[in-house]
Write a structure and sequence with these properties.
flat
Length: about 180
């Protein structure tokens, strides 16, 4: 399935090469218990994000999972480490060099946030900031970490802003059964 998804994404990118765009490519190869199917897409994914397939020099690429490993031999053993793995989905953010260099503190902030406790709301805030920065001369906006339109008291932050190491699942809005801190 990944071949068709990558092919569609490539055609979309090429067709609309002259306009700003947003694409989501959903891949399900990780939803089988051996890991062999997911490995089949390694080369195509590497070609895509390295620029061999498309010119992504002005593009942010986020590789995000909705959960970590939740099947297979290690998970079947009921190990605590397997449960922790399930609660820690992957996130890779590949940002254009021009964007990173436009703000001298951005790389430092992103690296400081590398092990931060984050949620999908934070990723949403980051994508929003990235799209706003494109309109504001490539500088990440300086805005409060929580949008004034949010009805909850939960704190959601862009990854372009410092996320405190003291953040808890409760303040991030992560239900206890999904909290990685509960396993530690």
């Amino acid at each position: 399935m990944h071949h068709q998804a990558f092919e569609y994404t490539t055609k979309f990118w090429e067709t609309y090469s002259d306009v700003p765009k947003f694409a989501v490519t959903m891949l399900i190869e990780g939803h089988e218990n051996t890991g062999h199917v997911a490995a089949l897409m390694d080369q195509e994914l590497a070609n895509l994000i390295s620029g061999k397939t498309l010119n992504l020099s002005d593009t942010a690429v986020f590789i995000v999972a909705d959960h970590g490993l939740h099947m297979g031999p290690l998970f079947a053993l009921g190990l605590e480490s397997a449960d922790l793995e399930n609660k820690l989905p992957v996130l890779f953010a590949l940002l254009p060099q021009s964007f990173v260099h436009s703000n001298r503190r951005l790389e430092e902030t992103m690296l400081a946030n590398e092990q931060a406790l984050i949620t999908a709301f934070d990723i949403h805030s980051t994508l929003s900031d990235f799209s706003l920065a494109e309109q504001e001369d490539s500088h990440p906006p300086n805005r409060p970490s929580t949008s004034p339109t949010q009805a909850s008291a939960l704190q959601h932050s862009s990854l372009f802003q410092h996320i405190p190491a003291s953040r808890t699942c409760a303040t991030a809005g992560i239900p206890q059964q999904f909290c990685k801190c509960a396993s530690q």
